[in-house]
Amino acid sequence: MAKQNHTDSSDFILMDFSFQSEHQHLLGLLFLSMYLLTVLGNLLIVLLISSDVHLLQTPMYFFLKHLSLADVGFASVTVPKMLQNLLFQVRTISYSGCLMQMHFYMTFANTDNYLLAVMAYDRYMAICHPLLYATRMSHKRCLLLVTICWLLASLNSVLYTLIMFPLSFCSSKKIPQFFCEFFPLLRLACSDTSVIETISLIESYVDVLGPFILIVISYACIFCTILKSPIHKRGTKGFSTCGSHLGVVTLFYGTLCWVYLQPNSRSPEQNMISSLMYTMVTPMLNPFIYTLRNMEIKAALKRFIGRTKTAGLFQFFLCSSKSAFL
């Protein structure tokens, strides 16, 4: 019995991609480039919103900054370990490391989920109730909403992590995924987990469907308000402000459904490739979706580049003057 307990068990083994070694290295370099692009793109949005005091100090960009931070954490929890597996063939992960990865993966994923709902509510207030927007979406209210998103996501992850502690694991330690995910890890347990799996499955559906329903209701009200508006320009502006958020929502929930709606109908290799869309591609594309058609972020980027060049020239002339004086 003691050998079955997780405290005495060996490390878990993560599944790798079924490619030849030279192809795995090329794939690892590709994923490394995508990961760096994800981190740099999202951190650039955080830097622009934090440094710009003109256009980007609104609730929408405040929420976007936290969404970008969650995307950086989301990608950083899973991708580095996957790169280690591909480039250095280190497929093992300790029990504590596995639980830690699962915990933070669920934290950042749920934070993304909640923030998208909050951003939809923000767009609803801005378009459907513009006269109340300043009071309903004050900085104090926005800070409270963001805090609730992070807190709920953390508590939800703690709940799932605590479920794992009393479980015992059998001799099979191979997880059919490139990162530690709750349900694949739960299925490796020796003890009866049917009740836990059913309750967790119901809770996870509620956890995802709740914010999604709020988003659908918000945009239904937004579209009704826009269509009823007699001013054509107001409708065009309303659709344009929602376009980026709708693109991110579609990408997030589209890949989520693709991964989890029919997991039993696909092979483990197909599930891994599907999970790549959810864990890597979506966080990488979010900065591009928000910047390609957003004139305010483009303007902030130009100002930031201008300030950087000015600061660089100032330091250059300062160093030149000191050198000449000396």
UniProtKB/TrEMBL annotation:
Its main location: membrane. The keyword Zinc does not apply. GO terms for molecular function: G protein-coupled receptor activity; olfactory receptor activity. CDD domains: 7tmA_OR1A-like. Residues 41-290 form the G-protein coupled receptors family 1 profile domain. InterPro entries: GPCR_Rhodpsn, GPCR_Rhodpsn_7TM, Olfact_rcpt. Gene3D superfamilies: Rhodopsin 7-helix transmembrane proteins. GO terms for cellular component: plasma membrane. It is a multi-pass membrane protein. It comes from the Eukaryota. Signal peptide: none annotated. The chain crosses the membrane at residues 26-49, 61-83, 103-121, 142-163, 208-227, 239-261, 273-292. Pfam families: 7tm_4. Keywords: Cell membrane, Disulfide bond, G-protein coupled receptor, Membrane, Olfaction, Receptor, Sensory transduction, Transducer, Transmembrane, Transmembrane helix. It is found in: Cell membrane. Belongs to the G-protein coupled receptor 1 family. Odorant receptor. This is Olfactory receptor. It comes from Notechis scutatus (mainland tiger snake).
